[in-house]
Amino acid sequence: MKSGLHRVCLLAMLLIGSADARAEFGGIGRAPTASELQAWDIDVRPDFIGLPAGKGSVAEGETIWAQQCASCHGDFGDANHVFTPLIGNTTADDIRTGRVASLKAGGSYRTTFTKVSSISTLWDYIRRAMPWDRPRSLSVDQVYAVLAYLLNLADVVPADFVLTEQSIVQVQSRMPNRDGMTRDHGLWDVKGRPDTRNTACMRNCLPGDPQVSSALPAHASGSHGDLASQNRPFGAVRGTQVGAAATPASADASATSALPSALNANGCMACHAVDSKLVGPAFAEIAKKYSGRADAESYLASRIRDGGSGVWGSVPMPPFPQLSADSVKSITKWIAQGAPR
Amino acid sequence: MDRDPRAQVRKAPENFLDPELLRSIRTRGLNEQRRRLIRGAFGAAVGALAATARAAEPDAGDPDIVNPTPWSTTLGKPVAFKPYGEPSRYEVALARRQSPGLTSVAQASVSFAPLQGMFGIITPSGLHFERHHQGWVDVDPSRHRLMINGLVGRPRVYTMDDLMRLPSVSRIHFIECGANTAMEWANVAVPTVQYTHGMLSCSEFTGVPLSVLLDDAKFERPKAKVVLAEGADGSGMTRSIAIERALDDVIVAYGMNGEMLRPENGYPLRLVVPGVQGVSWVKWLRRIEVGDQPYGTKDEVAHYVDLMPDGLLRQYTSIQEAKSVITTPSGGQKLMGPGFCNVTGLAWSGRDAIKGVDVSFDGGRNWRPARLETPVLPKALTRFNCDWTWDGKPCLLQSRATDKTGFVQPTYRQLREVRGTRSIYHNNAIQTWRVDASGEVTNVQL
After folding, report:
1. Which of A138, A326, B346, B348 is surrounded by the fewest CB atoms within 10 Å?
2. Domains within chain A, CATH numbers bracketed
């Protein structure tokens, strides 16, 4: 029931003559400025709306690639040690047909170029999120150049190609999987048609005895650590004890790990792993290399603070002057102890 | 039967007490001398227990009843000793965990929620699963903005102050990663429900309905088909969402389970897109653009595309269809022994509320309806329970959800007939747990 007050308010709104249905939100929010829109509205659609003008050559892209991209993606974009590979498993025939044949054959090896249908996606993503540890540090022309280099690696454009806001439209028609997408499914609309039609049968629903077709192989039983420690030691059930030698699955509770918290807090683990090489060397390898050095801790502290290159290959270690002395000490001490897990 | 020794109710350790001492305690109570004798006897008994089982003193009691415990005989800690409370130190087993080898770098990875030990339907915020694309960030709320632009009559910028002054709603919804259960498409790959189904959480979210903000920005109703949601993190996460969803029940949320969102879950602002896979619930939400066609973002073209047997990639698959799983007993757990067992689990559907859950103990031949616990809400986790008396024989446990649209959760066979085994996303097949004669539960497929 409408109160008298409500009627008064309604009358007041009519008298003011406001057509604004949301007048009650007065004082909340404001219009963005042109520069604000320009700063944030950077998305590029498959129809190229949003794409800024610019240009970059394959050669320019190769230079940027070697400096800023190759450490994770490999010199030729085909590495898989950090991320899934970008380049590979597409053919000249795919470029001609617009469908990547290997996807039909099971798609057991899927690279970015086997899947991507719209070139705008690559431009948009490189622009907004790359490089991995310094997103949005590339200029518009550098984004064109890096993408030109990738397109050349994928045999979509020749080595002397210059990618621009004009030429990118033609390149779209050479994307290997440009016709490889479908939206014919029921999972976009909440009222969409499901793929399957199971029934809620209650009695004698199977012809024979059910047969187990897949179980975890014995050699994989310890793959996720001791399951006893992943269940309460009291209550309705217990966790299964899996071989005492099994390594525990990493919980984010720091109590289960010898790793100094400074490693994860400061992004060190984005490039280094404990036991294997990622972008930078494994901590275990660093520990081994400097195990005999009396000044190992102070040497490593200077490398963390000031950065360096040449010791472990061509990828430079960026300087981390912002790390506190305590954080640096916790890391160097841990490495000097052999980088235990 | 090989039972976990910790699982059994053991003989009360009073039987380590000398009968003479027991009589003296009963008649004359405890004094310091008798306390010392108990402590000494207990120490000796702990050693002895390991070697031999001892005959029980007929009227001996449980030492945790008969003997005073430290917590009942000391002064407890003061209020606000921990200004922000945390779980008991005995609860360390329940933690988010990574699946070893799944990803190379933990900034673009997943941690799974420990469903095997959780109760009810609400996920404790500290156990909410994580999926980050370029690491998580802790955004300064005073510097956070939400922009609405595109096909709108008046583009808007809101501060957190603005958003938190607006009318709010609080609703309980599940969030499930589109890749939940992805590792199991072709065969069994991981041992426990934490890893098979743990990219699943459910919370009460509080915030402003997106429809309110779209109205405030005067979106262009006939032309608008899609909204693009964008995050403020390094990945600048972007996903396209159907305008019908955006105007229905989508929330621009700042609250989760009564407090602000956790940084790992998008503090101070995330999109809540009920029923739709988690990747669309953009965290650290900073921009909504209204458009007339989907945006073809990285996670709509290179990832989160479902490979079909004909080689086509399904794009913009979004809705999480009805699914359920038994959380206890489940893979990696062991029953205490034959007898009563409460079978419990979770069911959910991205299309509506759960109508019913059936449980099978013989691999899907016969089914029994489970009890649904309240609340039973649309697009929220629903807890089910089913009484069971285990006879000690091997069996195959399954649960099967039906939602209010009438859709019945499919078997692996039915799902694979349409989608093959390589599509990664949207695996909502019926899960089977095998119980062997020892009571050990393992993950199997039929």
Report:
1. A326
2. 55-172 (1.10.760.10), 256-308+317-336 (1.10.760.10)
Q: Which CATH number fits domain B98-314: 3.40.50.10610, 1.10.340.30, 3.90.420.10, 3.40.630.30?
A: 3.90.420.10
- Answer whether B297 sits within 8 Å of A192, measured CB to CB: no
Q: What is the pLDDT of residue A5?
A: 47
**Greater pLDDT, B22 or B66:** B66
Q: Which of A198, A203, A237 sits opposite B408 (nearest CB)?
A: A198
CATH number of B323-444: 2.60.40.650
Helices and strands in chain B: count of H runs, count of E runs: 9, 24
CA distance B216 to chain A (A): 6
Q: Select the residue of A83, A128, A236 nearest B328 (Cβ to Cβ).
A: A236
Of B90, B228, B319, Cβ closest to residue A192: B319
Domain with CATH 3.90.420.10 in chain B: 98-314
Task: Give B413 or B11, the one with higher predicted confidence.
Answer: B413
Average confidence (pLDDT) per 10 residues, chain A, 341 residues: 46 46 79 98 98 98 96 94 94 98 91 98 98 95 98 98 98 98 97 97 94 91 93 96 58 57 78 79 85 84 80 73 83 85 78
CB contact under 8 A, A135 and B195: no
Q: Is the dihedral of CA A119, A120, A124, A127 positive or negative?
A: positive
For residue B395, pLDDT beyond 70: yes
Cα–Cα dist A74/A78, whole Å? 6
* Candidates A112, A124, A237; nearest CB to B333: A237
Query: Which of A132, A192, A230 minimises the CB distance to B114?
Result: A230
ipTM at complex level = 0.86
B134: CB partners within 8 A, 6+ apart: A129, A132, A135, B107, B108, B233, B234, B235
Kindly determine whether residue A135 and residue B234, on different chains, have CB atoms separated by under 8 Å: yes
3-state secondary structure of A94: helix
Mutating which of B143, B241, B319, B386 best tests the A interface, going by the most A Cβ atoms within 10 A?
B319
- Closest-CA residue of chain B to A37: B149
Q: What is the pLDDT of residue A276?
A: 77
Per the omega criterion (within 30 degrees of 0), is the bond before B329 cis?
Answer: yes
Q: Which residue of B has its CA nearest to A247?
A: B100
Q: pLDDT tens for residues B117-155?
A: 999 999 999 999 999 999 999 999 999 999 999 999 999
pLDDT score of A335: 86
Size of interface A-B (CB pairs under 8 A): 344
Torsional class of A269: left (φ above 0), alpha (ψ -120 to 50), beta (otherwise): alpha
Residues of chain B with CATH 2.60.40.650: 323-444
Q: What is the pLDDT of residue A314?
A: 63
Which residue from B minimizes the CA distance to A114? B302
B116: contact with A, CB 8 A cutoff:
yes
How does pLDDT run across B74-91, given as a tens digit for each residue?
999 999 999 999 999 999
